Amino acid sequence: MPARFFCTCLAGLLVIPVLAEPLRLLPATNRVGRFEVLEFRLEGVVEQADPFDPACVDAAVVFTHAGQTSSVPAFFAQDYERRRVGGRDWFHPRGLPEWRARFAPTQTGEFTAVAVVRDARGYRRSGPVHFTCAPSTNHGFLRVSQADPRWLEFSDGQPFFPIGQNLAFIGSQQYFTVTRAEEAMGKLAANGANYLRIWTCCEDWALAIEARKSAWGRSWERRAPVVPMPGEPHRRCVLLTNATTAVNPSHDVALRPATRYVVTGRVRVAPASHVKLELQGTVSADLTPLAPETWTSFCHEFTTGTNEHWLAGMRFKREGAGPAWLANLSLKAADGGPELLWEADVNRPTRGFYNPLDCFWLDELLTAAQRHGIYLQLCLLTRDLYMSALKDPAGADYDRAIADAKRTFRYAVARWGAFTSVAAWEYWNEMDPGLPTDRFYTELGEFLEQTDPWRHLRTTSTWGPSPKDCRHPKLDFADVHFYYRPADHQRLRDEVEGVLDRARWLREHAPAKPAHQGESGLADDQWRITDEMKDSPSLADFHNMLWASALSGTAGTTLPWWWERLDQRDAYAHYQPLSRFIAGVPWTGGEVRSFMDEAAGGTVRVVGLRTRSAAWVWCFHRAAAWKQVVSAGQTPSPVRNAAVTLEGLDDGEYAVSWWDTRSGEILAAAMAKTRDGRLVVTAPDFTHDMAFQVRPR
What we know:
By secondary structure, the chain is of the alpha+beta class. The chain has eleven helices and 43 strands.
């Protein structure tokens, strides 16, 4: 391609032409497995003020295979170096941000890729690059089963039944850091679990892609010292009214040891006031301008010690009676590099800016999830940035919310869509069910159908049951949240009855969709963990809700909420027996039916799944509920000779195996014969619960 020159005429003056850098597409390798991630770098994209806005720079990669084309957006990203320092996760930017693209081919064979960019230099295309997709053992992306839409399967048709929990809050100030979350994935996978629900919308207390993270306060305080800038009222700055104003990012800011850094910014002071910079615990510089009431730039360099890995103690000290103002605070390596104090930018938009470190955290989590065979339901949008805009579907605020959400999901598809470990896009956590969200879900759903070539599942959640969301054609599976609280005790006998009640509700409102309980657990009437739950070593509630939900007819186990408690009790082993027990259920065969019954005069709750020739059944002693065994301290009396009747099996002889639900051991085996479609089996004696399988002889 011949070199291209660009020139611009400004106010009648001819600007000297500049040679345009060619657009180049660089793949990480020229061979990739089917459904595996291939990453590309794009070189030559013009730097823009807002690289996240496709109106400023629209970059994508077009792929051709066997005469068919598909495309994925490119994304702007900051890479990080990662270490463990003093038992803490340490992330420091590596190089400058750059443009990348990710692609997971769904077919084997030869591919051609071309980058296309529309930016300040116009429309450009890269030269083609070629790569080969080879077969792999990866089953592909999750989807609604094509044979039975109540369940899930992979791209290759292999059934998938989610077994897992919430691990919602991940961050440097949380119980689960990125490293600890990765370790939990390993424990889950080792015990047969395969699913996590993760929030990427935690505002400033944990992982959040798009959120109000600020070095000047927290979202729950609402007292950030941010005001219009004197002399430039269209912009904002920090008002230094207190004697000391701390720079307190929500992230730990990593520094390299023995490295020079530079702090820059602008200050303005009232007459007789002074501003000093305190850095790493010592007063470092007097920033007071020579002339008051004027904006004055400052620059201060410092060098970290040989064992100094973190920014600590950055404060601005104001002295004197009048106020002072601070703007454009920046921290970078002295030899250049990316911004380290991006949380100090008070003019950064909250919608449409994607926090660079949080995005890298999600890269790492999805990579670990893919390695361990864990699938992540990503709760992506920060609800409180959008909720107030969704009151009037005909209003301009509603239009803007849809446009901003499309931008966010375009970025999400570009950066994370190629990971098969993305189970689903959950739009947000617990939206107000009374808001008119149908238009939002319709337009965003249609946008994802055009933008996401892998067609990840789409879902949402509300803070109360929402039948309209269950029925919405652009939401692929239904979700409800349930906490068994004292207020429920009159209506629902125990946590098992609560789980089954919600399962019936889901199947009533979403009879032909996958559906699950995306949050669950015990709680007090303010939805908080109880002191009893904190103090008791028992996990009876978790165990009971896990087994009840798995056999209730929903498309996955309930996802318990109290992840810190589960980790502290090392609850992961509870997943293994259940995973083994249901491993043979033909989920997508079209024959699985759920049923609920009673035995032993109503003292035993029976919950199960069956086909015409097999069954998987859980028997629960009602006296083994949390209220009885923990709150009341009662020991259930043994259940003896309980007869359980199954209906709907084909006539014939069957093998029955009785399972210990805690160890996964088979305790007893017997043969039984149907009569007129009815099979009657007698359970061995048990005190809490027991499960059994029925298979053809």
